[in-house]
From TrEMBL:
Pfam families: Alpha-mann_mid (PF09261), Glyco_hydro_38N (PF01074). PANTHER family: ALPHA-MANNOSIDASE 2C1, MANNOSYLGLYCERATE HYDROLASE. Keywords: Glycosidase, Hydrolase, Metal-binding. Transmembrane segments: none annotated. InterPro entries: Gal_mutarotase_sf_dom, Glyco_hydro/deAcase_b/a-brl, Glyco_hydro_38_cen, Glyco_hydro_38_cen_sf, Glyco_hydro_38_N, Glyco_hydro_38_N_sf, Glyco_hydro_57/38_cen_sf. This is Alpha-mannosidase. CDD domains: GH38N_AMII_EcMngB_like. Coiled coil: none annotated. It comes from the Bacteria. Belongs to the glycosyl hydrolase 38 family. Residues 273-351 form the Glycoside hydrolase family 38 central domain. The keyword Methyltransferase does not apply. It comes from Enterococcus entomosocium.
Length: 861
């Protein structure tokens, strides 16, 4: 006899083609019905989609129902959490995913408890390090749907999923038919024979499991009424034994099984679409999400550690407020960008709010420190937000009366000078009253400063204003050289040389059509990509600037007819370092519709494989053949893949290392790496795409639905500045070195100057008033924590403890070799304890496994 476990749930998209406020209205009656039905049926249970935020929204309307909710949770009838929102699992960083679970789990405790399952029923596939991520938040299991190739990757939908290190693992349960295959249970022969029994038959065709899980529910769907009564009737009609169950109860059954083991990601569009090209849509929103998750993890959280040590008390709730708003933007539909324009506007507004919180926290901390140090106008503060020692260049912003300054005791160079002219009739407040003056002109300088830090802290540097120098322009040189490395522009071709080889057309910009929608990029039939040639070149010292302008098709219809009516202008600025690294900046205004822009980087021979940085590790990828793909896949399984800031491609002789924080999508074809800059589209869902034949995604071609235009997803007139870097290396390059390069590139530049020429370099600068008890600091340099780490090991997170006292430090090992940790040396001056991300104590195993993380709680001796 096969026992079929029925679990009642709802999948609650916070926003999609409808807005989050629409969903609050929907939840008013639907969630109220859930509470009523659970009270009426003490044996019934309901899963509130594994995300806490929707319950928070509901109880904001009905705070008086908190006691009732807590009782139902305590009785095992209502299941909430562990997530704050249903996170994307490819394009959110590992730290963002961890924070989502951290805050979801800790906030769930105000209701009593949370569902201890990594429940992600609709996420568009899963990165290979979900076992590492979920283990770090105290979870050892997952329930999911999309991305699995059942029968190839694993035989049964119930299996063991191990991390890349093989040391962490999850009990995994897959929904082969999805979370909505069995919606409202109907005790009729037509439903049981035609749908319910057949669903079980389908699962058993892959694995003859005696215990099978079937969810009943769907998007924004309420609770099944009288479910016990309906199951009694269904058991009289069906050929299997159906019983009411819960996810935790079924997971206990899975734990007792002998399970096959799988290692790797889930990104195969076999039973469901995973939208492999969704990483490029609505890049304006994605870029800001990527920037803000970096801002929070790499800057704001460490700055709050320094601030607290100095006596600047800021509430952790400010930080959590920013994170929660970001999690709302990183829900799978929201981060993917497959949403209506109305929702895109909501996302954009939340991102604006997050940015304001971050910038204001930064402003307040830096000004308080600078005032405490009584800095003069010719001094500036540089803050280093990681305990890893640093020696190199930082970029600082300086306000100066001249365009030329010299930093005392350090190498420096002015990279950019913007003149702000004088203003007349400016009011100045004085003790004797207001007076009107002429405000002198000044320069906003971007200065590169060579400096060194022993660890987490700050230092103060002093500069001297030099005589104003005439503005210089780039020469007519068509080449730049730094040591043995050279970039030259000849006959419209950019050539890279390192003394051993030359690479023709080393970098180029590619434009092609996009007939797809907000779910998938898809070209038009027989489309020929257009290489955006450069017409002119100027160079000076280590900088080369290429410019071009072409007439290109404005619309998809023009492209199909071979007509070009719109001017598209672009510049590519390149800098060459002494180590052979090419730092690049692509600029253009997007004047075209329904198209895609990619950066193309070449090697001399065909690329054989790629190694992409992912969450807490690296994953090798090789292109797969795509013949007869329609016979198996729900969409074309194109060789377009995600990466986390860094991707490396290899030919027989060389490796090409690419780094960017502004895109997470790449592919390689023949001898070239392609990284997506943007892909624009006009619709939320379309049927019969070249890459995705058949029905439209997004419900737009279901009965009664309408097609939804998305003019904002065209990003027309968007001013794009795309920063990236790349270098050519040996094929023998180690993961140690790759991880080191990535860590160095991630280091932010944080500086502040206490000056009165421009209060709006930071928006609230002039509103930060002196406190009753101001700081009094005497040390012009500070080092709170210094950690010299093994090669390939870095600091993934550093923040004040969220729910205890102390500092949390998380290390990441981005290599395939186990590394020892020596806490006594790393944490000199601190008591330490090994913990997980929930700040729960762990056994003191001072080893960081391959592609693993290790978290510590530090307290002052």
């Amino acid at each position: 006899m096969t026992n079929v476990h029925i679990v009642n749930h709802t999948h609650w998209d916070r926003e999609w083609y409808f807005t989050s406020m629409d969903c609050v209205v929907l939840s008013d009656q639907l969630f109220s019905d859930v509470l009523k039905e659970l009270k009426r049926q003490p044996t019934a249970s309901f899963v509130l989609d594994g995300q806490l935020s929707i319950l928070d929204d509901y109880l904001e309307l009905y705070p008086e129902r908190l006691t009732e909710v807590k009782e139902l949770i305590a009785n095992g009838q209502l299941f909430i959490g562990p997530w704050y929102t249903q996170t994307d699992a490819f394009f959110a960083s590992g730290e963002s995913i961890i924070r989502n679970a951290m805050i979801g789990i800790f906030d769930s405790k105000k209701y009593g408890s949370y569902m201890p399952i990594g429940y992600l029923p609709d996420t568009f596939g899963f990165n290979a390090q979900m076992p590492t991520i979920l283990n770090e938040v105290g979870l050892d299991n997952i329930i999911f749907w999309r991305g699995i190739d059942l029968g190839e990757q694993v035989k049964s939908p119930y299996f063991k999923w191990t991390s890349l290190s093989g040391r962490g693992s999850l009990y995994a349960v897959n929904f082969p038919q999805g979370y909505g295959a069995q919606q409202q249970l109907e005790p009729t022969s037509s439903y049981v024979d035609g749908r319910l029994d057949r669903g079980v038959d389908f699962i058993k065709s892959y694995a003859n499991e005696p215990e099978i899980l079937i969810p009943t529910g769907n998007d924004q769907l309420g609770i099944v009424s009288a479910i016990e009564e309906k199951l009694t009737k269904i058991n009289q009609l069906g050929k299997y034994k159906y019983q009411l169950s819960t996810y935790p109860a079924f997971m206990e059954i899975v734990r007792q099984k002998e399970l096959e083991v799988y290692q790797g990601e889930f990104r195969a569009p076999v039973f469901a679409r995973v939208h492999k090209t969704i990483g490029s849509v609505r890049m304006d929103l994605k870029r800001e999400i990527f920037r803000l998750e970096n801002k929070l993890v790499l800057e704001i959280e460490p700055m709050l550690v320094i601030a607290k040590d100095l006596g600047i008390e800021l509430s952790n709730r400010l930080l959590m407020k920013a994170w929660k708003k970001l999690f709302e933007c990183q829900a799978h539909d929201s981060l993917a960008g497959c949403v209506s324009d109305s929702v895109a506007q909501d996302i954009s507004h939340r991102l604006k709010e997050i940015s304001e919180i971050c910038e204001s926290i930064e402003n307040l901390i830096l000004k308080r420190i600078s005032e405490g140090l009584a800095l003069q106008a010719n001094q500036f503060l540089i803050l280093h937000p990681t305990p890893v020692p640093f020696q190199g260049e930082k970029l600082v912003k300086i306000v100066s009366r001249t365009n030329n300054i010299k930093v005392i005791g350090a190498d420096s160079s002015v990279l950019e000078a913007v003149y702000i002219p004088s203003r007349k009739n400016i009011m100045e407040e004085t003790p004797a009253g207001n007076r009107f003056i002429e405000e002198e002109g000044y320069y906003l300088l971007t200065v590169q400063v060579t400096c060194a830090f022993s660890g987490l802290g700050y230092q103060v540097l002093t500069f001297e204003e030099q005589e104003t120098t005439p503005e210089s322009s780039l020469d007519q040189n068509t080449w730049i050289r730094n040591g043995k490395y050279m970039l030259s522009f000849e006959d419209g071709h950019l050539i890279y040389s390192d003394g051993k080889q030359q690479i023709l057309d080393f970098l180029s910009i590619i434009d092609d059509s996009n007939a797809g929608d907000t779910y998938d990029y898809s070209p038009i039939l027989n489309d020929q990509p257009i290489t955006l040639r450069f017409a002119s070149c100027k160079g000076k010292q280590e900088t080369l600037a290429l410019e071009g302008s072409l007439q290109l098709p404005y619309t998809i219809e023009e492209r199909m007819k071979g007509i070009a009516t719109k001017t598209f202008a672009y510049t590519l600025t390149l800098q060459l370092t002494k180590n052979g690294e090419v730092n690049a900046k692509l600029r253009f205004k997007n004047t075209l519709l329904n198209h895609r822009i990619q950066v193309k980087a070449r090697l001399n021979k065909p690329i054989e494989r790629a190694v992409a940085a992912i969450q807490f590790g690296y994953l090798e990828k090789r292109n797969q053949t795509l013949e007869n793909w329609q016979e198996k896949y729900a969409e074309k399984p194109v060789n377009i893949e995600p990466f986390e800031k860094q991707v490396v491609v290899y030919d027989q002789e060389n490796a090409l290392v690419f780094y960017s924080e502004q895109s997470k999508e790449y592919e390689y074809i023949d001898d070239s790496l392609y990284v997506t800059v943007l892909a624009t589209t006009d619709s939320l869902g379309k049927p019969d795409l070249l890459y995705r034949p058949g029905r439209a995604s997004g419900d737009t071609t279901k009965k009664g639905h309408i097609m939804m235009e998305t003019p904002l997803a065209q990003m027309e007139n968007y001013e794009m500045v795309f920063d990236f870097s790349l270098r050519v290396a040996s094929t023998a390059i180690s993961e140690d070195l790759l991880a080191t390069w990535k860590t160095v590139k991630e280091q932010p530049s944080i500086s502040y100057q206490l000056q009165d020429l421009n209060y709006f370099i930071y928006r609230i600068d002039n509103k930060i008033q002196k406190r009753i008890d101001p700081l009094s600091l005497t040390d012009m340099s500070l080092s709170l924590l210094s950690c010299s780490l093994e090669p390939g090991v870095g600091v993934s997170a550093l923040h004040n403890a969220y729910y205890s006292e102390g500092i949390v430090v998380r290390f990441v090992n981005s290599t395939n070799k186990e590394r020892p940790l020596e806490p006594k040396k790393l944490f000199n001056g601190y008591e330490y304890q090994r913990i997980n991300a929930l700040e729960e104590p762990l056994e003191a195993d001072h080893i960081i496994h391959a592609y693993g993380v290790a978290t510590y709680l530090l307290t002052k001796n």
